[in-house]
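Exercise 7b. Backbone tokens:
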């Protein structure tokens, strides 16, 4: 179990947190004492998830947000800071996947995946970082994938977005470390969620959302004098 109240007074913003990995991360950080801001596209599901968190005594703000839009991200961050306080932890979790031969997809498909998985991270970080720089502290955690390290048939567009995310994260880490801001990226293998990319394997052998939440908790409680650039997580047994 996470150490209770170790994050008391901290504010964490988690994107794509109405279900799956994002919800597990919000729940874990909330149980550790953080005030959490969650966003997603499905307003009904977002409200349902927020109610579960609040039922556990976790102070929660839920904002329906299209993270592909800079104006909506700015509004999300401004509201989070106004209602909960300055953001200490940003977890860029939201993501989508389209799988199949790359030449069968259109430009709109490419834009949807890259805008969600990569551009949104740039937009969110750009909006959060100025206040983190002013305070000389902050933690940015990006949820990528082992698909950002290994290509596979039918995954060209998804892999491109995740390889790009690793490049973006690495550059951000170098830009920000001098301000006391740490940037880490978690690369999980297949996770048992509603996400369509796991290919129908044995979910009992897959990673669980709590496995990723555990890694996030470990990162944010690490000594401030160091940070892990990348964390790779694999299931013990191949699905």
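Sequence design result:
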């Amino acid at each position: 179990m996470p150490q209770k109240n170790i994050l008391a007074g901290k504010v964490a913003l988690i994107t794509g947190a109405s279900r799956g990995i994002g919800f597990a991360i919000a729940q874990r950080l909330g149980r550790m004492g953080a005030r959490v801001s969650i966003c997603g596209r499905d307003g009904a599901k977002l409200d349902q998830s927020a109610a579960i968190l609040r039922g556990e005594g976790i102070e929660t703000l839920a904002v329906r947000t299209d993270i592909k839009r800079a104006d909506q991200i700015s509004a999300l961050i401004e509201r989070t800071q106004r209602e909960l306080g300055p953001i200490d932890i940003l977890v860029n979790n939201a993501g989508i996947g389209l799988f199949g031969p790359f030449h069968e997809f259109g430009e709109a498909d490419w834009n949807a995946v890259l805008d969600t998985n990569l551009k949104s991270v740039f937009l969110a970080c750009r909006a959060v970082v100025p206040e983190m720089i002013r305070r000389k502290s902050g933690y940015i955690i990006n949820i990528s994938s082992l698909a950002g390290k290994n290509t596979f048939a039918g995954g060209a567009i998804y892999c491109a977005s995740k390889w790009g995310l690793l490049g973006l994260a690495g550059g951000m880490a170098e830009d920000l470390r001098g301000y006391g801001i740490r940037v880490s990226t978690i690369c999980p293998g297949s996770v048992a969620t509603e996400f369509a990319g796991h290919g129908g394997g044995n979910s009992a052998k897959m990673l669980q959302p709590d496995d990723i939440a555990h890694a996030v908790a470990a990162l944010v409680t690490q000594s401030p004098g160091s940070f892990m650039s990348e964390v790779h997580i694999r299931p013990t047994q191949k699905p």
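Instructor comment: The mean pLDDT is 94. The beta strands are 11-14, 35-40, 60-64, 89-92, 138-143, 181-188, 230-233.
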